[in-house]
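Case study: Glycerophosphoryl diester phosphodiesterase.
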Amino acid sequence: MNNFCVAHRGFSGKAPENTRAAFKLAMSVPYVKWLEIDVQLTRDGVPVVIHDFSVDRTTTGKGKVKDLTWREIRTMDAGIWKGSQFEGEQVPSLDEVLQMVKGRLKVNIELKTSGDMYPGLEEKVLERVRAHQMLSEVVITSFEPKALLRAKELEPEVKVGLIIDAHPRDLLSRLKKLGCSFLSIGYSHLDASFASELLKNGITPMAWTVDDRRSMAALARMNPEIMICTNRPDMWGQLFSNGFAPRIPFWDKWKGWFR
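Here is what the predicted structure looks like once written out:
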C-alpha cells in the first residue's frame, strides 16, 4: 500500500480523540505520516484542538467552546470518557500540538467553524503555524469556503482544502476557484476516475473516515495517491501483514508537497 495514512483526531480508535494521548499513540506508529485535528477558538481567543462545538461529549465540562475561556476548558478532563487509563487528559491548545508533532508528522488543520462563528480564527491559526515555522508542514481545511478564502488572503503560500461529504458536478471548478490543492471527501463519494481527475489538476484527495480493511484496500487500489484518513491506524497495519508495503517518505521529497 503506497497511500499515506492520516490519523483522524490522532489514534482516536484507541485513545480519546484530539488529545495528547491520541497524538502520541499516532506518532508511535511508523506508517502514520499525517495527523488530522480540529481547531476552534475559546472566548478569550486561544486556538484549541477539539471537534464538537460544545465540550459536553468529550470532557467533564459543559457549554460551548466559544463561550468558555482557555482556563475554564483547561480544568476539564478530556480523557476519562474513553477509559480510566486516560483520566487527566486535557483539551490541548494548537500551540501544544504543533510543538509536539513538528518535524514528525504533517498536519491537516480543520478550521471547525460555521458561518461567522469564530471571527479571526484563520488569523489566529496562521499566527501559531508561522510561530512554529510549520507553514510547509500543514494544510488548512474546512467545510466553510469563506474560511479557506480568508486563509489564502492572509497567507497566499498556505495549502488549503475543502471538506465535503458529497460529489456535486461542479466540485472540481469550485476547488479551483478556492485555490485548493487538497480535497477532504467522504470516502463513499470517491472513485478512481474522479481521483485521477483531481490529481491531474494538482489536487490531492483524502478519503475519510475509513476504519475497515476492505474499504482501505479498495481505495488503495483506486489510486496510490489517495490519502486515507482513519481512526484505526492498526487496521492499516493489518493490511501490511497481508502483503501491502507502506510508503515511508523522506522529508526532502516533499518539495512538491503532496506528490
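For the exam, be able to explain this: The CA atoms of residues 9 and 18 lie 5 Å apart.
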